[in-house]
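Lab channel / #folding
Pinned by the channel admin:
"Please post every new chain as: sequence first, then the structure tokens as a reply. Keep commentary short and put observations after the output so the thread stays searchable."

First post following the new format, from NK:
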Amino acid sequence: MALIAQSVPSTSYVPCISALQPGWGSSGLQAKDSGTRFTLSSDRSPNHPVHVELSQSCPIGTATPIAPRTPGGRSYLSLSSIDPRYAGTMYDVFPGGCVSYRFDFERGAHVPLMAQLQSIVGFVPRQQLRLDVQRQLGVRLDP
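Reply from TO:
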């Protein structure tokens, strides 16, 4: 998680996998100076992984506000299709960072898949992570 936090030093929250639901998996973690990417896959949506990306900002455009998932943050949903597939991007925006989730689910199966996706990805406040890393590893997380 410290590598993810360092990939966007300004972010006030760090995304984490809270608990994978049955049938879900994760792969392809890439933490770079410009952000972090990974994919989530469900056996109920084969060949259509969810692409998750932490970056300093997101192009939310005309996305519709939804219930926020972080204290002090905002969440949005932008749909590119609702039929025959439910596809688009969900955003979690907070001070200094943003997580985007590009998804493409079969219509009908999308309701439980979207609910599961939202429960799989959680957030750790950067302040808390900084304290935990210092306490457990004796390493200072910048900034």
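NK: The domain at 2-132 is CATH 3.40.1000 (Protein Transport Mog1p; Chain A).
TO: also worth noting, Residues 63 and 78 are 4 Å apart (CA to CA).
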